[in-house]
Amino acid sequence: MRNRSIPAISDQDKDYVRSLVIYEDASLIAFDKPAGLAVQTRGNRGRCLDHLLWAFARSNGKRPRLVHRIDAVTSGLVLAAKTKPAAAHISEAFGTRRVRKTYFALVEMTQPIARSGSAVDHLISRGRNTFVATSHGQGGEARTDWTIMAEGTASTALLRARPVTGRMHQIRVQLSAMGCGILGDQLYGAGSEKASRLMLHAFDLSLQHPDGSDMTLAAPLPDDFLAVLDEYGIPTGASPAMPAAE
């Protein structure tokens, strides 16, 4: 069998994608994706993380493969597998909900909410790549557990969100339905006049490594996220990563 041809990747793009790596071993490679970089595009047109993975291709044409996705406008942790067995192991873990996912979201509360709770809805499509949450319907069930971590000015709050399911736009839709639209969310929440970026960050993943050991990978909150938290008086402490208090 002929080896797969390797698309040309510029030295600049190679340096760029390598600068995003926050963890790597023989099985996995994890990236801290900035907001604005798409994970995948149709036909891999334009710059996207999936295409940039060719920077890690071996001479036989094999390269890491993505095992999950986050929205282009969301920053944070994205995981890829470097071997077929690793990809199968991690994909199966996501599919059977054995990966704990933690996000942080800065929201504008338009109504009071409890300090913590679970949102369980059905997400129904209302157009191309947009959804609405309902209490019943034909859409797939979505569950997100959430906790208020800190409150700021202008009715804002920093929420820790842990999606149990993995529906498209799940956290954004469900928080909006709660009256807690995410700042910078022009589809579902408080738009760009509140923040120049979507204030949603994929913070960590806890899972079983293909070798059987338990592991947690984390991507600290980026500077542009921290700057908006500071603007709204949300305490962040000295660490660039908010503590994920249990």
Protein model, in words:
With 246 residues, the chain is of the alpha+beta class. It has one domain (11-231): Pseudouridine synthase (2-Layer Sandwich). Helix content is 17%, strand content 34%. It has five helices and twelve strands. The protein has helices spanning 11-19, 49-52, 84-95, 170-177, 223-231; strands at 21-24, 28-33, 65-66, 75-81, 100-109, 116-127, 130-134, 140-151, 156-163, 180-182, 200-208, 214-218. Strands 1, 2, 3, 4, 5, 6, 7, 8, 9, 10, 11 and 12 form a twelve-stranded mixed beta sheet that branches. It is globular and about 55 Å long.
Defining key terms:
Pseudouridine synthase, 5 helices, 17% helix, alpha+beta, disordered C terminus, 12 strands, 246 residues, 34% strand, twelve-stranded mixed sheet, single chain
CATH architecture title: 2-Layer Sandwich
CATH class: Alpha Beta
Q: What structural category characterises the helix and strand content?
A: alpha+beta
Number of strands: 12
How would the blueprint of this fold be written?
Elements: H1 11-19, E1 21-24, E2 28-33, H2 49-52, E3 65-66, E4 75-81, H3 84-95, E5 100-109, E6 116-127, E7 130-134, E8 140-151, E9 156-163, H4 170-177, E10 180-182, E11 200-208, E12 214-218, H5 223-231
Parallel strand pairs: 4-11
Antiparallel strand pairs: 1-2, 2-4, 3-4, 5-9, 5-10, 5-11, 6-7, 6-8, 8-9, 11-12
